[in-house]
Automatic annotation (TrEMBL):
SUPFAM superfamilies: CBS-domain pair
Record bears the keyword Zinc-finger: no
UniProt cross-references to InterPro entries, sorted A to Z: CBS_dom, CBS_dom_sf, Diverse_CBS-Domain
Name of protein: CBS domain-containing protein
A Pfam family the protein falls into: CBS
Ranges of residues in domain CBS: 11-70, 86-140
Residues of the signal peptide: none
Annotated SMART domains: CBS (SM00116)
Length: 140
């Protein structure tokens, strides 16, 4: 039955990740280059936290300009580390969780992405955009 379909059917498997030692400038470049809004922060593929593009926007002028060399952003980014800005103690799901279960989590919480973790290792990410695309497939 479609309600019991695992999230692995729609999750993104090749996840763009960051390390706590990466710079916020690197994070901004990844967000823009890959047109994504959430990046898991990992250490040896173990999830440590989540950085969202919104987290960066709270610190910078990244949304005002497409100029990748904004000196004000670089200065602000140098004041903080990914470790200081990332969300910790995040909710994760397993690749065997159903799409319905994951949709219920996303609908009831204030975040828009969930790391998919199996055996303590990051195996994917699922976002509200993935859910909407899946819903559109079903409705077509």
């Amino acid at each position: 039955m479609i309600r019991k379909a695992p999230i692995s059917m729609i999750m993104t498997e090749n996840v763009i990740t960051l390390n706590k030692t990466d710079s916020l400038e690197t994070a901004e470049q990844l967000f823009k280059q890959h047109k994504i809004r959430h990046i898991p922060v990992v250490s040896d593929n173990v999830i440590m936290g989540m950085l969202s593009y919104t987290d960066l926007l709270r610190l910078s002028f990244a949304d005002i300009t497409n100029n990748d060399d904004n000196p004000a952003d670089v200065m602000v980014y140098n004041m903080f580390t990914i470790d200081q800005v990332m969300k910790r103690n995040i909710v994760t799901v397993s690749s065997s969780n159903s799409i319905k279960e994951v949709a219920e989590i996303l609908a009831s919480k204030e975040f828009h992405a969930l790391p998919v973790v199996d055996n303590n290792s990051l195996t994917g990410i699922v976002t509200t955009t993935d859910m909407i695309k899946h819903l559109l497939k079903i409705l077509n």
